[in-house]
Amino acid sequence: MPELTKTPVETEVPETGALAAAEPVREKARSLWQDAWRDLRRNPVFIISGLLITFLVVIAIWPGLIASGDPGDCDLAHSLQGSAAGHPFGFDQQGCDVYTRTVFGARASITVGVLATLGSAVLGGVLGGLAGFFGGWWDTLLSRLADVFFGIPILLGGLVFLSLVGGSLWSVITFIVLLGWPQVARIARGAVVTVKQQDYVQAARALGAGSTRMMLRHVLPNAVAPVIVVSTIALGTYISLEATLSFLGVGLRPPTVSWGIDISSASSSFRNAPHMLLYPAGALSITVLAFILLGDAVRDALDPKLR
Amino acid sequence: MGRYVLRRLLQMIPVFIGTTLLIFLMVHALGDPIAARFGDKAPDPVVAAQIRAEFNLDKPLWLQYVLYFKGIFTGDFGTAFTGEPVIDLMARSWPVTLKLGLTAFVIEAVVGIALGLVSGLRRGRLTDTVAMAFTLIVISIPVFVLGFTLQYLLGVKWAVIRPTVSYGAPLNELILPGLVLASVSLAYVTRLTRTSVAENLRADYVRTAVAKGLPRRRVVTQHLLRNSLIPVVTFLGTDLGALMGGALVTETIFNIQGVGYNLMQGVRRQESATVVGFVTVLVIVYLVANLLVDLLYAVLDPRIRYA
Amino acid sequence: MTTTTEKSVNPQAGKAGTPLLEVRDLHVEFRTRDGVAKAVNGVNYSVSAGETLAVLGESGSGKSVTAQAIMGILDSPPGFVTQGQINFQGRDLLKLSEKERRRIRGAKMAMIFQDALSSLNPVLTVGYQLGEMFRVHQGMSRKDAKAKAIELMDRVRIPAARERVNDYPHQFSGGMRQRIMIAMALALEPDLIIADEPTTALDVTVQAQVMDLLAELQREYHMGLILITHDLGVVADVADKIAVMYAGRIVETAPVHELYKQPAHPYTRGLLDSIPRLDQKGQELYAIKGLPPNLLRIPSGCAFNPRCPMAQDVCRTDIPVLHPVTDSRGSACHFWKETLDG
């Protein structure tokens, strides 16, 4: 049946077909992004996750907008108390306001997620892209290196690496980039290799297009989409990873406010005061969910094969 | 087939050397284990030198690595600072973690594939939508949050099970920890199976099978499923190692004295022998699992076997 | 659109007996996200035992969809048969239960697909896939089925069948793979075979061999054969009659030599004129202008009118019925007489 369901699309090629064929890559790339954007705007999942993420980013930058207190302002007298006037989520062990801490915790998660994603996307994208484009020993070396990093279970690596350099925002980000880039690199490499083998790229090469020009005009636009897809999906898991490392006691350290740390300290008195764990855990889960939904929507829009 | 196995084994060697070297360097950069052992007290220089000699810490780093590498093949992983050979520690904790890991693996594979198959066959229907929403939620909730919540609900509030696992880790007590450990991977297996099934459902050979007049059940089990499982098997293999690493969190939550538990102890005490030993075995398990998967892959897909 | 139903000319009229297969006023549509694509819009044709009907058309003309509707392997959703009858050996297939249709598939009617590589299961041996026919339809044992598979492979002249029965599809050449497809279709000696572009994916030299084999086996088993193709060259040698399809309708139907000699529809004429011929060497080759119609928005009136050199106003408003040209042929063109006269 594929033959027929495809037909309507194919027959809609405009009369200027000959003109469009002269610029196949640009035409293809442009319509891919336009199609993706048109698709996203109509996708309720994208709209909901987008709004949620906007909200999260805003409170990560200006937590004061919805929380007036100071997360470090604690009073042991309130230790483990339930919700009270002005303190809807109650207090934790140290007597800190759980609501304020939950709001302020967004900053660490969003920062780690966004920066680690950018880092691994750029590093992996560039290394993988170059490996795919130039091939040869550079490709072999990089693939083996990626295998080595893949060979390290991520939590174990985190445990060892962060014990070594000490937990901080930057060390956590560095670690995630270090273990995250091979995944992006593989995708980028694969995409570049595929594009390189396409007939129109071969044709451009035969016509004497130089390496730089090939890379910029033909290969890059087609390899960017898969990198964006895999990175968006990874963002949510990076946030989850930061919380897990902080929970294990090797990630972020106080006084940084992090959901992972709060969940860890809440776990000891969880049986008596479940609310302490509930709110940061809920906030964390919703944040991760929002980014994963966004990643899903972006993938659906950019990867028409999967529709 | 024999040549294929040999080629895969040879490919493993550089990855194995690279990974162990990386771990070795990282752990040895962890800091001075002697200082860590004596805590705040300044160590007696004579005793310190003696210990250094005993643990080969006085030798140059490359020699230490060679000795360590030799140790891997002779089963000599050094001694923990308690005086107990690391190999004994392993013999005690590995069976526990293997049991936990395999429980999780079985849950992940069986439930994930079944759910993914049903979803993929009914793509776009209610069953599918519910299953997909379920997987998204599971992926979004970090493992330690899920672990604590289930432990609280099932173990404490409703008291259906023991909240922690007793010594020796009997299998029936490992079901909940196994489920928690499997949760995220389970969701990925479901999604992967679903995509693969939905894609193969449109394949020409499925249409042929239907045109042959085969009953639907046979079309699904004999023709569709076997092809669809190829990418799933790859994921399951790489995930086996991740499960062992994920045991860090699960074992912490449920107080299981396995590999993760001992590793955490080792990292906290900066016992390089213990950490290096355990991580090395984990990496070996991971690489062997990958090899087994590649072989299974070749069994499932004759196109690779005869390539 | 003034009329949607067509008076059919039964090209079978002259012959005795009921045909093996008779498709009547078949309509199939695809309900997609972008709208409803009307793939088949009232097709009528019939095939008798021992007869070869060639169905000719561009991709998207509905020729394959009609075949899939006959076999009952339409992807549904999005594809739906909305109207019509498919009478096979005296029964309307569209009224049968799925279970009854399944028993007919493979046993009484079989299909050969275009791309044997993707149409055969890559992870199962050809012996298994051939033997499966006997095991499922006749409950044969694994061992007997394999013996039958070897027999079949011999029949379609695959060398060293006994040694190759445990090989996988990718280990065969394109021509050999298509022979396996043919063997699979023939396994239970069906009464009707539908071959959907059986030689398109093959090298030219292999095409002839495969086509000859198919024609020979058809004669031997006295089967009805529906040969779906876009290649006029393939048709001339093997077909008894031709049905030309355009935008989900039959625009012309005729015995094969009559159609070649004197087409009665401008579309058929266009197809014939676009074949390179030795006696017209050096002349510019004719090409039908424009593109095949978008099935979501089929032009009003005659679907071919935007591309037709003879189109008049009536062609844009009225759908032409299939006018009887002679007893055995028909043309769905308002100006069939003018076309016929040249």
Number of domains of chain C: 2
Number of strands of chain A: 0
- Overall SS class of chain C: alpha/beta
- Helix count of chain A equals 12
Number of strands of chain C: 12
Q: Which class of the domain at 107-254 in chain A in CATH terms?
A: Mainly Alpha
Largest interface: A-B, 42 and 47 residues
Helix-strand topology string of chain C: EEEHEEHEHHHHHEHEHEEHHHEEH
- Rounded mean pLDDT of chain C is 85
CATH homologous superfamily heading of the largest domain in chain C = P-loop containing nucleotide triphosphate hydrolases
- Any guess at the CATH architecture of the domain at 107-254 in chain A? Orthogonal Bundle
Largest sheet of chain C: 8 strands, mixed
Figure out the total of helices of chain C: 13
The name CATH uses for the topology of the domain at 107-254 in chain A is: MetI-like fold
Question: In short, what is this structure?
Answer:
In chain A, helix 4 (44-61) packs across helix 5 (98-134), helix 5 packs parallel to helix 8 (169-197) and helix 10 packs antiparallel against helix 12 (275-302). Chain A contains twelve helices and no strands.
Indicate the topology.
The complex is a heterotrimer of chains A (307), B (307) and C (342).
Chain A lengths: L1 H9 L6 H6 L1 H18 L2 H18 L36 H37 L1 H15 L3 H12 L3 H29 L1 H8 L4 H37 L11 H10 L6 H28 L5
Chain B lengths: L1 H27 L4 H6 L6 H10 L6 H14 L11 H36 L4 H15 L2 H15 L17 H27 L2 H8 L4 H39 L4 H11 L2 H29 L1 H4 L2
Helix pairs in contact in B: 1-12, 5-6, 5-8, 5-10, 6-8, 7-8, 7-10, 8-10, 9-10, 10-11, 10-12, 11-12
Chain C lengths: L20 E12 L2 E13 L4 E5 L6 H9 L7 E10 L2 E2 L5 H7 L4 E4 L3 H4 L6 H13 L3 H14 L5 H4 L9 H13 L5 E5 L7 H18 L2 E6 L2 H7 L2 E6 L2 E7 H6 L4 H8 L39 H5 L5 E4 L2 E3 L4 H6 L1
Parallel strand pairs in C: 3-8, 3-9, 6-7, 7-8
Antiparallel strand pairs in C: 1-2, 1-4, 4-5, 9-10, 10-12, 11-12
Structure description:
The complex is a heterotrimer of chains A (307), B (307) and C (342). Chain A has helices spanning 2-10, 17-22, 24-41, 44-61, 98-134, 136-150, 154-165, 169-197, 199-206, 211-247, 259-268, 275-302. Chain A is mainly α and 307 residues long. In chain A, α5 runs antiparallel to α10. Chain A is elongated and about 80 Å long. Chain B has 307 residues and is mostly helical. Chain B contains 13 helices and no strands. The N and C termini of chain B lie close together (10 Å). Chain C is of the alpha/beta class. Chain C is 33% helix and 23% strand. In chain C, strands 6-7-8-3-9-10-12-11 form an eight-stranded mixed sheet, with helices on both faces. In chain C, β1 and β2 (35-47) form a beta hairpin. The two termini of chain C are 28 Å apart. The chains are: A mainly alpha (307), B mainly alpha (307), C alpha/beta (342).
